[in-house]
UniProtKB/TrEMBL annotation:
Family designation: Belongs to the RimP family.
An annotated GO cellular component: cytosol
Main location: cytoplasm
General function of this protein: Required for maturation of 30S ribosomal subunits.
GO biological process: ribosomal small subunit assembly; translation
Name of the gene this protein is made from: rimP
SUPFAM superfamilies: YhbC-like, C-terminal domain, YhbC-like, N-terminal domain
Protein's UniProt name: Ribosome maturation factor RimP
Residue intervals of the Ribosome maturation factor RimP N-terminal domain: 15-85
Organism: Candidatus Fermentithermobacillus carboniphilus
Compartment list: Cytoplasm
Length: 163
């Protein structure tokens, strides 16, 4: 099984379980840092993630991982908050972080630019042969980028995040 398949399988298994602890599971990511393998579970609450939230999620996830043993070799489980400048990876994050400042990086330029800053408005599903769109509001107006042309969407830290 590929790394991404393991991540998706674990995400699907743990999302409803973690929700019972009062937090949303945003992502499960399998990382290699040097010789260490890390399984990072990213959790979210609109009010902010506390240490108690991380402990509660760990107490749900860890025993199940020990039972199903989905990852070959040894690994460390990390539970984290999304962070202020998170790179979005899953569709649900576009809904969770709608209304937040972001930067969209493109593979191919649009209107002569590859980088746009604005406020995340979400995702629009593709229909009738049209591709899925990443939506942001910018100073130049509302923009819709083909998702296939988007290399990265990253949240931008602002002073409002301190409130």
């Amino acid at each position: 099984m590929s790394r991404r398949e393991i991540e998706n399988e674990l995400f699907d298994a743990f999302e409803p379980l973690v929700r019972k602890a009062g937090v949303e599971l945003l992502d499960m990511e399998l990382l290699s840092e040097g010789k260490r393998t890390i399984l990072r579970a990213t959790i979210f609450r609109p009010e902010g993630v506390t240490l108690d939230d991380c402990v509660a999620a760990e107490r749900i996830i860890s025993p199940v991982l020990d039972q199903i043993d989905p990852i070959p070799g040894s690994y460390n489980l990390e539970i984290s908050s999304p962070g202020l400048e998170r790179t979005l990876r899953r569709d649900k994050e576009y809904e969770v972080f709608a209304g937040k400042p972001c930067q969209v990086n493109l593979y191919a330029p649009v209107n002569g630019k590859r980088v746009f800053r604005g406020v995340l408005a979400g995702l629009r599903p593709g229909d009738g042969g049209e591709s899925e769109k990443v939506l942001i509001s910018t100073d130049e107006g509302d923009m819709a980028f083909d998702r296939k042309n988007v290399s990265k969407v990253q949240l931008i830290y602002t002073d409002e995040d301190l409130d």
